[in-house]
Write a structure and sequence with these properties.
Elements (H helix, E strand, L loop, with lengths): L2 E7 L3 H4 L1 H6 L4 H9 L5 E7 L9 H5 L3 E5 L9 H12 L3 E5 L6 H7 L6 E13 L13 E11 L9 E8 L4 E10 L2 E6 L12 H14 L41
Parallel strand pairs: 1-2, 1-3, 3-4, 4-9
Antiparallel strand pairs: 5-6, 5-7, 7-8, 8-9
Helix pairs in contact: 5-6
């Protein structure tokens, strides 16, 4: 059975900037999806900001195993309702891979609970990515380091929670370093942030970047059934306790009450 993937793209610069359009004639999201579809175990489709519900209806998310998210110029245009829908899907077990400037997306900040801010410079400088976690499945088939000749610089400090794992670290030609591949667990969902991917450079045509994304999808995939109501906090009545107990002391709640949220 194939891993069902959606590659979500903002699709703004893809249409408005000729440099981006020349590099990615059908959009970055399509380029990324085509790479993923080169693996017979993955079935990738796309969605963009301009689609109804941004292409992320509840029905579609229920049938999605991993979502990739790329955004930059229009983070504020993403519906809060859709953000909460995606967050609940992740908490229930859907994998999420956030790309490049998606660090400032509503969904990434929602799941991290921090500003996710950083330093940056757009100068087309060389980026050298180092594997920081040997034998991690996300870097399977990747050498101990690889280089991107042209990239946007992101530098520390990076305003994220301490990662579960730091898989990749970048060095830039101007001297900065950055945690460029980090993992998290949010509820039942696996989350991976991957830094490279500035739209005016051919990053998503790079073979090592393609390999990382293929590996990341397989890592983020959770084969267990989706938890459909991950925010539920059920009340367990006394008579349903696994061991016999006697109710005692004053009570604030009545049996079966949903409680306060």
């Amino acid at each position: 059975m194939s891993i069902k993937v959606i590659v979500w793209g903002e699709n703004v610069h893809d249409q408005e900037n000729q440099v981006v359009a020349d590099l990615y004639p059908k959009g970055m999201h399509t380029c990324i999806a085509n790479n993923l579809n080169s693996d017979t175990g993955i079935e990738a489709s796309t969605a963009v900001l301009q689609d109804p519900e941004h292409g992320l209806s509840q029905e579609r998310l229920v049938n999605t195993d991993v979502l990739l998210w790329w955004g930059h110029a229009a983070h504020g245009e993403v519906s809060d309702e859709v953000v909460e829908r995606v967050a609940n899907a992740v908490l229930g077990g859907m994998g999420l891979i956030v790309l490049h400037s998606g660090h400032f997306s509503k969904i990434f900040k929602r799941l991290m609970g921090t500003p996710c801010n950083l330093t940056w410079r757009e100068a087309g400088e060389r980026e050298r990515l180092w594997v920081a976690s040997r034998n991690h499945p996300i870097v399977k088939g990747i050498p101990d380091h690889f280089e991107l000749e042209y990239e946007e610089m992101y530098g520390e400090p990076f305003g994220i929670p301490e990662p579960l794992e730091t898989v990749l670290i970048s060095w830039f030609q101007g001297g900065e370093v950055f945690r460029s591949g980090v993992t998290y667990k949010r509820g039942a969902g696996n989350v991976f942030y991957f830094r490279p991917g500035h739209e005016t450079y051919p990053t998503y045509h790079d073979e090592n970047v393609k390999t990382v994304l293929l590996n990341a999808v397989k890592w983020a995939y959770n084969e267990q059934p989706r938890i459909m109501n991950p925010n539920d906090a059920p009340n367990v009545p006394v008579e349903q306790a696994l061991e016999p107990i006697v109710e005692r002391g004053p009570k604030l709640h009545v049996d079966g009450e949903l409680g306060f949220k």
